[in-house]
Amino acid sequence: MSYQPPPFNYTQPPYGYVPLPLVSTQPLEIAPLLQRTRGGAPISWLVSDHPSTATTNMLLPHGRAWQNEQATYPPVSSLTIWSGPTGDRPIVVRGNPYVTVWDVLLTVHHAIRDVAQERFQPVHQQHLLSFPPSYHHPIPHPTPSEQEVRQWVLNHLNGRYTWRGLKPYEPESWVLHIR
Questions:
Q1: 55/49 Cα distance (integer angstroms)
Q2: Ranges for the DUF6699 domain (predicted)?
Q3: Rounded to two decimals, what is the model's pTM?
């Protein structure tokens, strides 16, 4: 038996939306620690800061570390988050063997930093004149200081830094809320 690709759909644009296969056979729920609630998010964190600064007001049984809690029920190895700060670029969180709360916070933090750095990091004129950019020879950037990157993140977020949690968006994807 040979595999045949599906027929080409000429009625949709070539870059149209393609739904991904579900990662779980059961309905997926986000962990209460990560949920956006009316009473406020269980996690207190400025997304511009490293996730190690995050705290929670939820008590877990037996003194378990809240960062190591699974991010979804049932647990999955990847999770998709959409957010205003990253625009049309999804934040894909991966975990081994499953995604944890820490994986979510760290990946969100890095995704926002990456977008801010792409937006604000200057391209030095000497590099533009020395050779044309190409796929094989990207324009080099000097390594920015942590203070510079932090300022870019703050500028990019435009006063909205506080983690407010995740809300369901589509099956198996969530929207990040910050204020």
A1: 12
A2: 43-168
A3: 0.78
What was the pLDDT predicted at 122? Answer: 78
- The answer to whether the beta carbons of residues 169 and 76 sit under 8 Å apart is no
- Write out the two tokens for 77: 């190895």
Q: Are residues 95 and 78 in contact, defined by beta-carbon separation less than 8 angstroms?
A: yes
Residue 151's identity, in one-letter code, is Q
Q: What is the pLDDT of residues 56-85, one digit of tens each?
A: 987 776 666 899 999 999 999 999 999 999
**Paired tokens of 40:** 């406020």
Find, among 65, 75, 82, the residue nearest to 96 by Cα. Answer: 75
Question: What phi-psi label fits residue 31: left (phi over 0), alpha (psi between -120 and 50 degrees) or beta?
Answer: beta
Closest CA relative to residue 20, chosen from 171, 174, 176: 171
